[in-house]
Amino acid sequence: MFYKYNKKKLKFESCDKLVVKVVTGIILIILVTSLSSYTLGRFTTKNRFIELESPLYIIEKDNPNHDFSRDALVEMIKELGIKYPKIVLAQSILETGHWTSIIFEENHNLFGMRQARLRIRTAKGTQLNHAYYDNWKESVYDYAFYQCRYLSKINSEEEYFAALDATYAEATDYSETLKSIIEKEDLKKLFE
Question: Which residues neighbour 192 within 8 Å (Cβ) at sequence distance 6 or greater?
């Protein structure tokens, strides 16, 4: 439960849903901007945030039917400053079967993520044994939070692959499959 201080009544009162959304938005902004090398001004010029009252911002709610594209995903990965972007894009391709799986189509889940329990998350719950989101962008934010929480101290691609093999995937050849996708689809050029 969230509370706010009412200066006129000199007491704390329960927050309404808008305040909870604003607080959640602030937390998301702090985490997203910590992942990005861009300034907050760059985000506001792209109309990603709605200014409510300086310095509070809330993430604009996307239309759940917004068209997904590989280029839009690449752009969002770049904007968020996600580490090892070609590996992350390869994960999306592998986990969704080139964005055709039921987990992607119904859950808007790009990475086969399960609902997190011990970190900030954007997932709305579990459906089809995977996290589900209101839109595909929330899935990207959730992956960014996952990466920030668990993989932020990794310093090389090989360490990243090893961490994915150890904790992310059940397949024993997961990183080798990702490397194959990166090479076959020439994903490196998208992030140069």
Answer: none
